[in-house]
Amino acid sequence: PLPAGLPLHSHQQQLEQQLKSNKRTAAGKSWEDLTLAQFPENDFRLFVGNLAKDIRDDQLAEAFRSRYPSFAMARICFNKHDSKSRGYGFVSLMDAKDCARALREMDQTWLGSRPIKVKRSEW
Questions:
Q1: pTM assigned to the model
Q2: 14-63: per-residue pLDDT in tens?
Q3: How far is CA 88 from CA 27, 42, 55, 79, 117, in A?
Q4: How far does Cα 5 stand from its chain's mean position?
Q5: How far apart are CA 106 and CA 101, in angstroms?
Q6: Contact 76/57 with Cβ under 8 angstroms?
Q7: What 8-state DSSP symbol labels residue 36?
């Protein structure tokens, strides 16, 4: 059944996105990474590093959402074995100008107890 109020093409896009995955390889192991499918297509993605260990997804999201109207989502990466923050994450913006502004304005700004490092993401 289709979710109420969702056009058929949007539902198809959601299903396609859920089925998308990316094969990842590191340290001689390969696995399917479904997390990349969560990000919108054709977004402008930023790497955000030097995050304090106590920063949560919602705090990272709010730091960008409050300044950039095209903000789409933010995710912090966690260690799957102990669920602790790896100290970096990704922010997705839908507008190239917002992305360029975020690179200039947010790099070396303080979020929590540390100055964050913002770069254009390579994936």
A1: 0.73
A2: 555 444 556 767 788 886 766 667 888 889 999 999 999 999 999 999 99
A3: 20, 22, 10, 11, 9
A4: 27
A5: 8
A6: yes
A7: G
